[in-house]
User: Fold this.
Amino acid sequence: MSAAITGCQVEPSRVQHDTVTGPAIVVRALEREFGERKALAGVSFEVREGEIFGLLGPNGGGKTTLFRILATLLPPTRGTAAILGHDVVADPAAVRRAIGVVFQATSTDKKLTSLENLIYQGHMYGMSGAPLRKRAMELLERFGVADRAGEYCEKLSGGLRRRVEIAKGLLHGPKVLLLDEPSAGLDPGARRELREVLEGLKKDGTTVLLTTHFMEEGAMADRVAILDRGLIVALGKPESLCAESGTDVVSIRSRDPGKLRDAIAAKFQAPVSLLDGQLRVERSRGHEFVPQLVESFPGQVEAVTVAKPTLEDVFVRKTGRSFVEEPAPAAPKKGH
Assistant:
């Protein structure tokens, strides 16, 4: 967790689990404006206690703004958000005590060892002495980096540094962990290890909210909210969202995709989209459709694939656009 959040020291007696009887996170009609630009345009959802909840979307979708509001770093323009019953605006100190936060940018001090990073974090919460060291070593052991406790973080791989950062976020025993793009910059092996870490957190009953633009990471969540241009365009279990259409996705490559798109739409009376240079048709029993397609347009189909829908296909279906990273919005002017 960064100094921006842990700057106010928390007395050891106040570092404790909150008792919650409802959802762990409640967001209602949340809006955030930067001048004339609306980063969030009325977002509502709940995160159940003990679940992994994903916020999936391209840059410009609103997920980072939403994350910063939940982490008490940015006030909403309108609407409300509460974590374990504490309003992020009315009672930010209580929210900060209740959550752990791991930002996309690395927060470990590379000139400190893994253990020293955790000890320093504990001091931010008023923790000290043998209890702090014991807690720090327990977490390093839990995340498989206890053997690197005395090693400087600058010598650790990206995956191991991320494990140390998650241990830092959990040091004070929060019931809710917020992760911003946790696997950004990690190699495929480290991403797999991170998924194992998250599954372990779920088994322990920790509520995890993560932002991501990786489809496989979104698919790992118990439920996912797909954000686009400040709105939630789909929300539910990944497998349910993918199965919603009941169709296969047929992707077609052609030398003249524009011409072929119109011809396919006219012959088969089906909507055909052109995205990233390829034609896309949603069709039940797609494997049976392929021979009809090739026979109907000999020489015009260069390649064709059939696949089950993914979360990317859900995004395309809901927005009519491909899941392409939009340029990150310019930093808001001071005072917005």
Remarks:
- Residues 1-18, 327-336 have pLDDT under 50 and may be disordered.
- Residues 73 and 83 are 14 Å apart (CA to CA).
- The radius of gyration is 23 Å.
